[in-house]
Amino acid sequence: MELRQLRYFVSVVESGSMGRAAQQLGMVTSALSQQITRLEGELATRLLQRSASGTRPTDAGLAFYRQAQLALRHADDAVRAAQQARLSGHVSVGLAPSTSAVLALPFMRAMHQRYPDVRLRMVESLSGHLAGMLTARQLDLAVLFDTGTAAGHSTVPLLDERLFVLGLRGLPGLPAATRVRLAQLGSLPLVLPSNHHGLRATVDAAFRRARGSANLLYEVDGLAVLMDAVCAGLAATIQPGAATARLAGDDIVRIEIADRSARRVNLLAMLPDDELSPAALAARVVLRDVARGLVQGGHWPGATLHEA
Question: Which domains does the chain have, with CATH numbers?
Answer without folding.
Answer: 3-82 (1.10.10.10), 90-158+265-305 (3.40.190.10), 160-264 (3.40.190.10)
